[in-house]
Amino acid sequence: MFNFIYNIPILSIVIFLPLIGAFTIFLLPNKNNSNLVKITALFFSFLTFIFSILIWINFDNNISEYQFVEKIKWFGNFNFYYHIGIDGISLFLVLLSTFLTPICVLASWNNIKVKIKEYMIAFLILETLIIGMFLCIDLLLFYIFFESVLIPMFLIIGIWGGSNRVYASFKFFLYTLLGSVLMLLAVIYIYQQSGTMDIRELQNHNFTDNSEYWLWLAFFASFAVKIPMWPFHTWLPDAHVEAPTAGSVILAGILLKMGGYGFIRFSLGIFPVASNFFSTYVIILSIIAIIYTSFVALAQKDIKKLIAYSSVAHMGIVTIGIFIFNQQGIEGAMIQMISHGIVSAALFLSVGVLYDRMHTREISFYGGIVKNMPKYAVFFMIFTLSSIGLPGTSGFIGEFLTILGAYKFNILVSIFAATGIILGAMYMLYLYKRIFFGKITNSKLEIITDLNFRETIILAPIIILIFWIGLYPNSFLDPMHAPLENIITNYENKIIS
Amino acid sequence: MIYLIVFLPLLGFLFSSIIGNKLNNKFSQYITSGFLILSAFFSWIIFYKFLINKENIDLIMINWINSGDFKVDWAIRIDALSIIMLMVVSNISALIHIYSIGYMSKDPSIPRFMGYLSLFTFFMLALVTSNNLLQLFFGWEGVGLASYLLIGFWHHKETANNAAIKAFIVNRIGDFSFVIGIVGIYFIFGTLEFDEIFNQVDLYKESQFNFVGIEISTLNFLCTLLFIGAMGKSAQIGLHVWLPDAMEGPTPVSALIHAATMVTAGVFMVARMSPLFISANTASNIIILIGALTAIFAALIALTQNDIKKVIAYSTCSQLGYMFVAAGVGAYNAAIFHLTTHAFFKALLFLSAGSVIHALGNEQNMQKMGGLAKKIPITASMMWIGSLAIIGFPFLSGYYSKESIIESAYFANTSFGNLAYYVGIITSGLTAFYSWRLIFLTFYGKNRSEQDLFNKAHESPLVMIFPLILLSFGSIFVGVVCYDLFIGNNSINFWGNSIIVIEKYSNHMPFTQLLLGKLFISIGIILATVFYFYRNDLPKKLSTKYNYLYNILINKFYFDFIYNKIFVISSHNLGKLLWKQGDEKTIDGFGPDGLSKVIDKLSLIAGRFQTGYLYHYAFVMLIGLVGFLTWYLYV
């Protein structure tokens, strides 16, 4: 179907369409055209989504190699290429990005009052950078995209954020800066050692043990901050609280996944020996993350902060899944990333719904709103259930596969990973109860209105996805099998030798 | 047709919840009840076919998860065990749907209620017809969700919300263990499909593995994990705390979910996995012990409770204990037999209690009832039948099933079996006592409710009475009708390979032992009659005299109190501690905040960075990139 996409540089189109959109918006006249700006942004982001769906339709599940590869030499005599391709690992992360961006545009329809033009430009550039980052086969290109993503994100928090946005964006910047510097050094070192920036060639390159350990640590610093792992997580709650709704959606939905993607593609793919060496520490940190942040989430008073902490706990499952080195674990981690990408996005969007109406995220402000917002209550309940991993929803598949893989690795790891089953239910149901149930005691809530049409069409597709992944995850698992098998085989070969 | 049995309730739920609100309440009531009746009707047909053909059916619908060597399907499996469960669930659920039409007629959110009931039924049917552990877990968690939603159905009530959360979380503690058990079974057997697991059991009978330095038997370990899951769902001692609180839900819910069906899922699961459990001796002994303990412990608490529903709730705990005793001694067919008869008479008891509550305008405290037999004679007689069945009055349902459990405990001839046997007959005395206490307090003696409430008390409408009458037939006859199939001479033939059936013992229990059991029951009834019919002052005197003992019972052995202190409060405190001291003081203090204090001196420059102009940032980025490349080109 739609074979024509083989004849066009489809990946470049997906990467640069949003940028073209941003440029178009930039050219629009400045006065009184906020609707035109929004519609243009929506148009381009939606078009990008359509194109990315075409990629999925034509994707060959049996190939472990990159598909739709494009390669253009950059400049000079250096081995730097504009080299992009897609495989089963990046496919769904790209789809996640193209899926969430139009949702973000829609979610910002009414609540961004100032500099709407710049805001939309920032979002579309952000989309280009994120997609580019997932599609790179060239390490240097990856690094550039990876770091550039921070800039629009930093701006979105810093300009359109809440009252304490400066502190939050700075914390965000400080943490990520540390990782970036180290990673940059590592990238340079790798080029000097191997003479190539091609990820596939690097997979087969043998680094000396010592250098591999240092390189692994340098990459780890960057990814661990992004995903984020305990104890590098404290920027996340602040960033979420200050970011506008759509900013939170991108942050939780996609930016955190950059860390997980990096772990799979680079830590595991390029440095398997070091990954094996450090795996125990990573797993211990992940277990701490799951238990620690779950309890912290229980004590939160701000809805966004609670969800932010729950993200850290969920990402703990992801890092466990990745560093147990078996098919179920990594596929579980991937599904968990996709699931968390849509569910946390949905939760932040839902918080936005409340915030737009009442301008507060204080949990104690709410209570009993199920009476006035029955539809919203149902939606939020479904997101909650997926977040706590109820079988039949997307959250379960990732969590279960990870626990299954962990049992193969070490039974204790699987026991600790499974504590999330209890803890997650505790803080999420407690949150749900405090917002929705009980009698309305706050008189301001008497007039709160249910979801409007725009909000419904934003959230409804996410619900479909939640059940799709939960009931028939094979659509998502099948493309992953081959490339992940490849990574695991490579890992096993290198560990043995 | 098999698909319809399972999916009709789901359709009912979808219809009722999506378009039910827009149409009138009648639509939801009729569509959900109608679908359930159809589903029940079809399960009769399947049952009939099964009796003739004795054919197991395995329908693979679609592959569910496929990852590496892990593979699991959505499937429907029909064998003797699942067909019995299908019959119990669909029929009782249909009756309770009908009853709810009357009971909930004045509630403002009828479509939601009917929808949830159907949703529950769907999950329960998916649970019992599963052919693998993961789909069973899907149903398992699904019924937990439905239970959560229905306990908290009246969500304006704080107590109902807390009870709902408690139910979900206590169940999740069991599920935590259950999941690890499932994963462990996959690890050992390489599959989650029942038949494939059972085929390999013999290979692993003696296998051991190292767990934190200790060699333990694999099968015992896995079975214990699974059983902890069952403890959560079936409210066994330690994880029982949610069940009494679950009575916050509307009464039909208590009857369907928290008595007849969902709480028996644990027993069902143990029976389903019987080829595994039968080879796991230690785990089986744990089951006997927990079952026996729960049976007597819950019965003791039931002696002093004043809430009519809570008495029946504790009685449910206690009866589930009996079922586990049976499963523990290897009499899985007796366990399922008691499960089946219990489903009928417990549903009957609950719905009768509901009828009482309905008559008295939502009064649940038995101390404020009394003398109602004259006002609501049909309900009273239903309660009589239910109570006679539960104590095992000869030739009613409970008689056959409870006898068979006590008998199999007696013949197990192990120390655990003997313990369970004596606990069993003592408990049956306690059961008789609290059942008659309930009857006397509610229906006889002087009226203690407000006089005009009493005067207005009236028999429930036909739509509620009709299910009661059908259930009372079940409570009377199911035992005698099914005896032969379940535990009689036909049983081995009937169960086939669905559960392990041990050959029946040829000899009977000695006469003295039989008499002992009857003696305890009689004493129970006589004492209750004396205490609550002839000498109404006695209970008060006793409770003051043995104040200490009475307090333990009325406070339910302080389980809730201790759990609340240890777990609920401390976890909130721990959360606060980790947040304030851990995140804010330690990590931030040494991390970004500490750093930024150093940078504070440069804050002026930092401030300038925050211009917010895109081109500033783009410019900085560009400089960085150029700098990097320049540096790179010359190195």
Strand order of the largest sheet of chain B: 1-2
Q: How helix-rich are the residues of chain A, as a percent range?
A: over 70%
Shape call of chain A: globular
What are the secondary-structure elements of chain A, in order, as H or E? HHEEHHHHHHHHHHHHHHHHH
Count of helical segments of chain A?
Answer: 19
Class derived from helix and strand content of chain B = mainly alpha
Structural class of chain A: mainly alpha
Low-confidence stretches of chain A: none
The major β-sheet of chain B equals: 2 strands, antiparallel
The greatest interface here is: A-B, 74 and 67 residues
The overall strand count of chain B is: 4
Strand content of chain B: under 5%
- Please estimate the helix content of chain B: over 70%
- Total beta strands of chain A: 2
Rounded mean pLDDT score of chain A? 90
User: What gap, in angstroms, lies between the N and C termini of chain A?
Assistant: 44 Å
Shape of chain B: globular
Overall average pLDDT of chain B: 87
The radius of gyration computed from the alpha-carbon positions of chain B, rounded to a whole number of angstroms, is 28 Å
Q: How many helix segments of chain B? A: 28
Rg of chain A computed from alpha carbons, rounded to a whole number of angstroms: 22 Å
